[in-house]
Write a structure and sequence with these properties.
The complex is a heterodimer of chains A (about 240) and B (about 240). Chain A has nine helices and ten strands. With about 240 residues, chain A is α/β, with parallel strands linked by helices. Classes of the chains: A alpha/beta (about 240), B mainly alpha (about 240). At the A-B interface, helix 2, strand 6, helix 3, helix 4 and helix 5 of A face helix 1 and helix 10 of B.
Chain lengths: ~240, ~240
Amino acid sequence: MTPLIEVRGLRFQYEDGTQALDGVDFTLERGETVALFGANGSGKTTFVLHLNGILRGEGNISVCGMELSKQTLPQIRAKIGMVFQDSDEQLFMPTVIEDVAFGPLNLGVSQHDAIHQAEAALEQVGMLLAAGKVPYHLSAGEKKRVALAGVLAMNPEILVLDEPSTFLDPPGHANLVHLLRTLPQSKLIITHDTHFAAALAGRAVFFEKGKLVADGTVEEIVQRFQWSYSDLPADLRYSAQRRF
Amino acid sequence: MHHVHVDSWSQGKSVLHARDPRAKILTLLVFLTVLATTPADAALTLGIDAAVLVAGILIAGLPLLQLLSRAMVVLPFSLTFGLISWMTGDHLRAIGLVEKSYLSAAAVLLIVGTTSLPALLNGFEKLGAPRMLVLVAQFIYRYLFVISEQAQHMRLAASARQGDPRLHGKGRFRAAAGALAVLFARSYYRADGIHRAMLARAFTGRFPLLSSLHFRLADGLFLLTASAFLIVVRTQ
């Protein structure tokens, strides 16, 4: 069976000479949810920005069996829904419904169908009642849901989420986990939150200096790289008894 | 933030909100032309123009005082030129310049406050405005929001670190100049992020509309009546 995403030998250098990606090979199978771990600046976000052609480096990328090229870009962008870390970057239309319908309309869907798809996506994330609201006035959790609806309305096969739990309070965090579990799409999740990753992903990969250096279960990766906030030295961990 | 207010005003419902953007743009054009050609000493004509504006604001259900105070944004510029005219002895021209620029700004705010930005720009495009110009206007509007948001965050951060709230003069100017430089650098990265997010949702260089523009009989009547009234007042 053809993998949903297949990346071979991906390299990318920023204009300032930083080698952000240095020969990355990666495969995402249908139905998989993969967590992307790694330090800040290790190349995770740069990597996912290549998957839908926003950044162009050397190497081969194919999505849903289509080789990434200028010709296939519109179809590939319809297949990959990308939710950015800062929802404010994603919400730019005057109302929630117009923002969610932005993607379908760009894909050439009729106005009637775009409204229908936008409403269905808002319903899916529990934000239908906010359809007429101005996006800037929503809470961080609501913005995140609307941003997610904006990509779900495009009926993608793959969801890419860049640090989705950032800016969320604990209830918002839990709600997002519940919501993402109900979505059938394959997912790539960039996160530093190992509990969030463990709740959603069956597999994890680890980026280091532009290279994908490890691939395994979330537990294996967390243990191998001691990649967890709870791995803080005992004297730095939270304790209800401690007095500062 | 100004543009957020104007954005929320444009989501209202009124006879003016319901008009096709093209009818509103053309009426605005007539209003601005009539205003520009009105002699500075024609107090009655200018007064009627101002009354028409106030009536428009009230009919649209927009907050009168807020809109009129926001229109003052042009005053620093027009007052400068007005002052120059005043100093050259042309008092009438000085007063006319300030009056007309203020009324023009209020008229533009009335139209922008009753039309969503995508619809307004779509109207301009349908009227033959160059595609590139419309695209640039779309991005300026969006990035204006980004820059003002960044500025607010920086102002808060600066206030929080300002030991002496009465800091003034050179120190404040130096801090503001530094902040401005950082603001532009930050805004560049933020704008880049927004553009990426737009590309990720298949943006092709055109802001799509959820509803098509329809120029109806009521729009034609509005355009004709309003324009005829303004021209008659001007020529009397």
